[in-house]
Amino acid sequence: MTIRKAVIPAAGIGSRLLPLTKAIPKEMLPVGDKPVIEHTVRELVASGITDITIVVSAGKSLIQDHFRPNPQLVAQLRADGKAAYADAVEEVYELGRLGHITYLDQHGPYGNGTPVLNAARNLGDEPMLVLWPDDVFVAEVPRAQQLIDAYEKTGAPVLALMPMDPAESQRYGVPVVEETVGEGLMRISGLKEKPKTADAPSAYAAIGGYVVTPGIIEELRGQVDNWYTHRTGEVYLTDAINIFAAENPVYGQVIRGRWYDTGNPGDYLVAQFASALAHPEYGPLLRQLVEEQ
């Protein structure tokens, strides 16, 4: 089954970036000349995704405004002779149209599994991509397409992986690798969350891209039902994956490309700097600035 649907959970408050995110959703912070969530949407559309659900919370209206048409602004820009800017505004709307973006308010217990389950109720029993809007990937083949290709080979859930410095294992979920299939594809039996270096089961990190199948959605439903019964704990996608992987095939795909995390101040600045360095106009200016320091 070809994957055509995707979910972007965008309901978080961006606490690690406060006070920057007090009034601006973290998904709307710029990386280069685009807000970070636009990088994610572009990646999905370039990979053939035609139905994107963005799960939001209060205070996220700027995301909708960004992808919403603005004919008055376009007309004013064209009247002022600023055709290139008008084209850029229209192109962002066209991107949202191609991705058929819909928005859904998050409801349910705390945890990153909740927005996935919220969206799954509207998407039916199809496999779907889940990408966090904190990530920017620079790759010849989009990360989303690499995950789709892995799913088409295996017919099973797939996690995006990157090679990891073992000393950094306490920052990530680390997969338990059972079998190497080839071309960066490997069968895994679960994840260990933030293990000590000595306890890390592999030299890879799960970095926030997933192909989720109906079996994992069922595990999420079970977690949520349990939460409403006991009102304790949180609902996490990785917990559902671990439960599913105990009795079913799950795979990891090592992503070919460069990953930039924007979820904390240091990594966000690195992403900004790397994007600027790659720009044909701004890159030379920054290199000159560095040389002068």
From TrEMBL:
Taxonomically, which superkingdom?
Bacteria
The yes or no answer to whether the keyword Repressor is present is: no
Protein keywords: Nucleotidyltransferase, Transferase
Against InterPro entries, the record matches this protein to: GalU_uridylyltTrfase_bac/arc, NTP_transferase_dom, Nucleotide-diphossugar_trans
Q: Name one Pfam family in it.
A: NTP_transferase
Top enzyme category: transferase
Per its record, how is this protein called by name? Answer: UTP--glucose-1-phosphate uridylyltransferase
The source organism is Nocardia acididurans
